[in-house]
## 1
Amino acid sequence: MTALLPERATTYDVEAVRRDFPVLSRVVNGHPLVYLDNASSSHKPVQVLDAERAFVSQHYSNVHRGVHTLSQEATDGYEQARSTVAAFLGGQHDEIVFTKNATEAYNLVAYSFGNAPAGSRFALGPGDEVCVTEMEHHSNLVPWQMLCERTGATLRWFPLTDDGRLDLSDLDGLVNERTKVLSFVHQSNLLGTVNPVDVLVRRAREVGALVLLDGAQSAPHMPVDVAALGVDFYVATGHKMLAPSGIGMLWGRKELLDAMPPFMGGGSMIEVVQMSGSTYAPAPERFEAGTPVISQAVALAAACDYLSALGLERVQAHEAVLTARLLEGLRRLPGVRVVGPDSTVSRGSAVSFTVEGVHPHDVGQSLDELGIAVRVGHHCAAPVCRRYGVPATARASSYLYNTEGEIDRLLEGLEQVQAFWKA
Amino acid sequence: MSVTSAQTGPESLYQEIILDHYRNPHHRGLRDPYDVEVHHVNPTCGDEVTLRVQVADGTVQDVSYDGQGCSISQASTSVMTDLVIGQRVDAALVKADAFLELMQSRGALEPDEDVLEDGIAFAGVSRYPARVKCALLGWMAWKDATAQAVAQDPEENP
């Protein structure tokens, strides 16, 4: 992936986009809100809010259960949402499992593998390996640590280079004939790094490892085509891509999903239930035990439609302009250090940084006084902080509604913060 | 726009007393002798403190610490050492409870300067729920270590 040309963004009407997001007109602590915490969670446009409200107001019922009209309309809405999300990611209808968030999706895969009987293609045991990277969000790390603990498999990981990239120098050693699963992040939530999926997938294919790609930070920000990526599983979450919280998604190759054991048991995921035992429905129902997140799925589909109408290529180009401006501005501030790639090449809009002499929490609190929202802390990626020798970072992450003027407000704000804390 | 005007008012988070303790922390650095050493972390932000206490004759003889964290957590730990060192354990626990109560007050409590001294500067922190845990990090470490020290030696039990 290469950096997109800034001039492509000139056709992008960011002011029109902003009018779709009511919260952006808020005043916070006496200043117009500058929301730069999008890698944590994004805001929702009126189109998404309206879609959810219309569904709940007129068509809501439980799904897959009744013969009455509302039940059918609700089921249609829910299943249409599945089709929309599938098309958005380049997959098929039956390959999308709705979850409550991305975390549940990783756990679904890890627990399903853990439930596989010995000898199954999914089963792990001593001698088997799971490979991740040092830049994983805790949600794509801890479930694999737990799986390895339960099964006796070994967890391995790619280290990171000083400039915030994966160190692939031992690619063939880390992904080898013992590797059963390779699970890694598409775009790092802390560093902003976009990883070379093709290189990793090629090696995984050579050794027969299954590949899970964490798309929580890529689906909102770039065109995604799971078929082109060549992975086996892809995970994303609604609330980072203009949809409500409470809805996440797992895409998996149908052939794999149908062969995997269930994760959670309950209603909806069964075929025949007898007191002596049960058989299970095919995917995706097999992995959606209980009443699912219904209206949030409908809202997620509306968010996908919104993003598709805007064009992810244009969103990506717009963000590249903002990221370039931010990186350039941060470079000019003495004592500010970017943790992650210092260019827009193979990089997303999440920019972590430290300010010499000022703890990230104090940076964030001081910026809030100026109406500027950034995230501070370890961003659920504590090993990354440890790798770069910082206890925490401040992170500014822009999205489709942010402007160059807002980036400038952040940079001016950081100068103010430095002045305040210098005394 | 100005950070300074917003952040130095009487209602603000960053009181001058807090900034003073942050820049020039009291009793910082791990010392011997000590009875108990604890390590407390704030898992949501990564702040951490290693803290030692020495208790003898029912009195807090010494508290020393090292750690990393934001201005609120570092200054609060500094103020805490001023308040508890040399105090009877039960009197120091009263101060700890008073500070905890202040932190949980959401700005609705007028702190007692006779009890909390410089600690009253943290009254504003209670209006920032996300920062309360920062202010409590050192205090909770001290309470933990002191309880262990007292339990180790029943004669120290006040």
## 2
Amino acid sequence: MRLTRRAVLLALPALAAASARAEAPLPVVATFSILGDFVREVGGEAVEISVIVGPDGDAHVYEPTPADSKKLQRAKLVFVNGLGFEGWLDRLIAASKTKARIVVASEGVAARKLEGEPDPHAWQDVANARRYVENIRDALKAADPVRADVFERRAGAYLQRLDALDAEVRASIARIPEARRRVVSTHDAFGYFAARYGIAFIAPEGVSTEAEASARDIARIVDAAKREKVGAVFLENVVDPRLARAIAADSGVRLGGELYSDALSPPGGPAADYIAMMRHNVEELSSALVP
Amino acid sequence: MLYDALVAPFVDYPFMRRALVGALATALAGGPLGVFLLLRRMSLAGDALSHAILPGVALGYLAAGLSLPAMTLGGLGAGLVVALSSGAVARFSAQREDASLAAFYLVSLALGVALVALKGSNVDLLHVLFGSALALDDTALYLLAGVATITLAALALFYRALAADTLDPVFLRRVSRFGEFAQYLFLSLVVLNLVAGFQALGTLMAVGLIMLPAAAARLWTQDLTRALLLAGVLGALSAYIGLALSFAAGLPAGPAIILAAGAIYFVSLVLGRAGGLIRNLTPRRHLEG
């Protein structure tokens, strides 16, 4: 503790120098669109953010480009999800030789396990999203203390909106009869959502989109859909929609709309930011499940 | 027990029946095509062409989204351009066809990957451009069955020209104008089958169901007609065993079917009566008087 205080004292002259030219926005990188949205909400004009895997992209199997390496080199902070989500990231960071601080946004989140591995899709639980935002706020404050009050204020406002979102999601789910709160989804990305809001998701593919489903997997889903009387089958914005259609046809279950799990939609789409994404998903669930 | 593994999955699940029908159609038409490819020493051309199709399929996808007709037309265009132009280069320049085909397909593949990247989003190619046998819808089934029908009809109609062009092209070109035609017809059929199989079943399935059964069939008989029939039958058998395996062992359908075809190939390689290992390595009695 004493050591850190001394470190801060030693760093003060450097900070003073930084404040003199503090007008330029802080260059930061976020690995995927949802994380980018959080950083934008907290940082506002004070950060210049580049996102590596953009809207509708699949961060599980992304292939980095030289431009990404350049972004990393310029950045002061790199925000990552962690929990094994960005498998390609370590190599990219090593290759770019960036001196940026790597901030794991999911730090402190209670990770769920999926087939022995941590489930990375923690942001699907709004309480975890709060945690992401707090981590982002703290990292930004540490990197740019001059504008700490800006980050503090913006994060506070956004956290309040997240609290309202959480309450709104709960209220919407409460309107679905309890027996109908079960769906089939093509990608195991809603574990956190399911645990917090009480909707059972049954998925034909494993936690990652890398593995192809086998005939047995699909047969199990069709069986489960029939046996457990699920309310609907849902597509997702990054996995083969033909598979979900086949399952819906075979099990005779209603086909729900598109749920967003790992990526936002492009601007103007139904899930252009995190709050819109969560609202969109809940609306799709409600319209498929409320009788 | 045997019923559970071999029959029950197909009785219980419509998606298994659709997968079987799609794979059977591909196998029945693909096997005979593979035999011709094999005899023309173009066994690797199928693989190369399947890569060449990518930019066309990608263009179709970019233009019209996940639409089977658009992606088919695009793939067909790209495949035909590569197949026919590499043939033309071979004819009008000093370069041989395998070299020009390799050059053309690599450029085409790179173009395809670049096109998809241009779109900005990196939605996994494997999930969008390649289908899965387990997710066949009616349109995909009609496409596969239609292509198989056209292929088999064309093979039957032009059987003599194709056989002559394969076995003795110089002779055919001397006695008939069919020589040129037979070559282009054949390449078009190959592209057509690859394009259909590529999106409906995945690239591994498309090429695998053409080449493996053909290579296996050729190890049992020297006779062209018999080899053609046998290749189709072995392909169909692989499709059936592979799907049952995918169900029983939890393997993805494409690799399971190709592994089944591979197993049949290795058995043929050992036991085959026309050039199998045992037959070739055991000393035979000399023909007597």
